Amino acid sequence: MALSLAIRDLDAGYGAVKALRGVSLHVESGETVALLGTNGNGKSTLMKCVAGLVRPERGSLILTIDGTAHDLAKLSAEAIVDLGVAMVPEGRRLFPKLTVLENLMLGAFRKAARQNIDRNLALAFETFPALKGLQKQLAGTMSGGQQQMLAIARALMSSPRLLLIDEPSVGLSPLLVSQTISKIGELNHNLGLTVLMAEQNFNQTIRIADRGYIIVHGEIVVAADSVDELKGNDIVKRLYLGGIV
Amino acid sequence: MFSFELLLDAVVIGVLLGCFYAAVSLGLSISFGLLDVPHVAHPAFLVLASYAVYFLNEHYGVDPLLAGLLITPLFFLFGLVAYRLYYETFEKRGSDAGVRGIAFFFGIAFIIEVLIILLFGVDQRSVTADYVGKAWRLGDMRIPFRLVVAFVVAAALTILLTLYLSRTFMGRAIRAVAQDQEALRLMGANPIRIKQWAFGIATAVLGIAGALLIIVAPVEPTLDRTYIGRTFCVVVMAGLGSMSGTLVAAIILGVAEAIVLTLFGASWAPAISFAMLLGVLAVRPQGLFGRRS
Ligand SMILES: Nc1ncnc2c1ncn2[C@@H]1O[C@H](COP(=O)(O)OP(=O)(O)O)[C@@H](O)[C@H]1O
Ligand SMILES: [Mg+2]
Description:
heterodimer, A: four-stranded antiparallel β-sheet, B: mainly alpha, binds magnesium ion
């Protein structure tokens, strides 16, 4: 099952605010690709364009599955979920007054996902055993680490092939950040999930990323084909390793 | 004068009356409680349903409860249309839509009142059925059979809606939609369609509730005004969006009204709901069963 995402010349924004300018980026089957950038540079906007929550003004978003191309810019968020794209949004965005189990069930809202609900529920608990004992707990009453687990588990409920993860490290302690990033690495390894991850935490991200992009003011300023290339890049040194951030 | 028997009577009648209030409030518990729609036309929809039941009963001899069931699909469609209209004209425009939305629903309520007056006149209307006039004798107590019907129907509706909202995919999405619309879109659910569907269900429930309203007492075109206070009091007291909470809150209101009626007379009863509504908002705005978020 081959899958690839090719984004070309993407412009997007919110009225007068131009959040993305001429963004091109690609993700190949089985890869973990990092989208690095500090606050307000357009990472979330890019993720939302792929998920169908924000409509691009220009450019194309082509998802190719087994040789068939789908133009995501023309599809609804619902149809994009059906194609096997799931997103773990920034800030987790759980349903706080619903239980853990109810949050998971909502992850399987689409008709196609409902058929695999038992299998995916088992997979979610296998991936995050801690959630199993918390099924009846209200999501809003859980710790940040537990909430992040639930947010990722919920995304797994729709049997995704491409997982978009927006800043999983936000608000977590260093230990939990490290565990969460490792978990995402495992999902990529064990399930063959293709991952596009937006992050600010450079050192944690390069532990699992195959390659990455740096986005500044809505433009891709670095496209590196390997982690080593990322580490050696001057802009990266200035932004992340020189201590400006 | 005050006596223990009178008080007991009041409590029993109050519980039954409360169940009836629950039946007429459950729809609002969805539309206002879960969807945040300022649906002040809810009681007007209710009275409209009563007149539809009256029409079927008067002209075709249909049993009022059966008539309530028969109009349920129509009211479901009516709810779908009403929400779509509200969404396109108000909700879509953003944050201050709520306040103007109230004006929209007041307008609809007014139109419904006028329509009813044009079609049925201003006189009181009632239905005929075996159980409307009868009563059960329990010792010295006289329990009107029509309140028992209301009790049973309210309990059934509460259970059905609770199951629907907790056990079905659509039900869970309905409870989620007011919490985070964008997250719901990521689950592949369209929030507008979910809300429209939920509003349809909230309105459909009024078919049965309207039957109960006219079974319990005769109706008149402006009866909805009395029920604005009652239904909003119940839904706010319940803690927005809880079905079982709605039942309990409605019973509290029913008992309070029955006791005040016994002690001070009928003229005070309508004020109770407003007093309790203000009290709840002041002391426990999240409702008796709601959690602070
Ligand atoms: N809903 C919105 N309305 C208006 N402007 C927005 C909105 N969301 C983001 N922006 C703006 O778009 C730019 C990019 O934001 P975002 O994509 O959230 O960046 P990042 O995820 O990298 O922090 C910022 O200037 C931000 O202020
Ligand atoms: Mg962001």
